[in-house]
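User: Could you walk me through two proteins back to back? I'd like the raw sequence and the structure tokens for each, with a short line separating them so I can tell where one ends and the next begins.

Assistant: Of course. Protein one, sequence then structure:
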Amino acid sequence: MNAQLAGKVVNENNDPLPGASVVIKGTTQGTTTDGAGIFNLSPVPKIPFTITVSSVNYAVRNVTVRNIEDSLIVRLQVLYQTDTVVITSRRRREVLQDVPINVSVVGGKQIEESGAFNITRVKEIVPSLQMYTSIRGTRALIYAAWVLPSGLPTTD
């Protein structure tokens, strides 16, 4: 009978993380969590061994497994807060008051209440917002760039 490791991957609020990757470190053997954040990994090497757990928008975590009798709970830390969309137009630092253009802040609650599900809908929240891109030669020049929380598509 092969040894098996069972566990659950959650975030800081103990919410399950579906689709998280769980891999035995140093191998290609792994699995992903189901909709409830649960994983089963079999066969596993002789203990102790290390698993690497990762998920989009969360810090990668290495966990040393010393016991496979109990279910393992792995808590991942978020990398980026998803309640803010950041818009940038330059690479140099400037004080907001010195920027010669209108600056608007759109929070996650405002996006959620508006029903925005992609970048086109987010642009409708701030009607004066314009986004331009220009390609010059082999180098792309972007005048306004969007940095979005994970999972928000950029097209319809």
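----
Protein two, same layout:
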Amino acid sequence: MLLNGDTECAVRGMIYLAAQVPGELVRGCDIAEYLDIPLQTLTNVLRRLVKRGVLYSVKGRGGGFSMYPGAEQMSFLEIIEIVDGRLTRRGCVLKMNACAQMEMCHNHCQWGRITNHEMEFLKRQTIGGMSEILFKNSLITIE
């Protein structure tokens, strides 16, 4: 599965915020700079997570974003669905007409298994778990 730009931004932003001191506000410009994401894109995406009660934000001087307690336990799939909507299989990935009818194309079953594995991975992988792997185990440093 390839994530679109907004979804990737949301997942990366959440992983970064999960590595911060709980309850401490992080300025949007600092997040954007660290993740190398345009500030406007980042703030638009993070505002969606604020509206859904995953993050909270404070505007103005001294403001920023922070995660609500427990948000680090959210799965990648939950974040993706907040940003992109519910993920569903939309027919044959090869766009074969046969799959829309009774008989399926040759690769239908293989693609179905791949899709199922992706969905299971996205359900199991938590924001906090990935943050811990990347930041707390020193694979990446926070400056």
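Residues 14 and 127 are 7 Å apart (CA to CA).

Let me know if you want the two compared in more detail.
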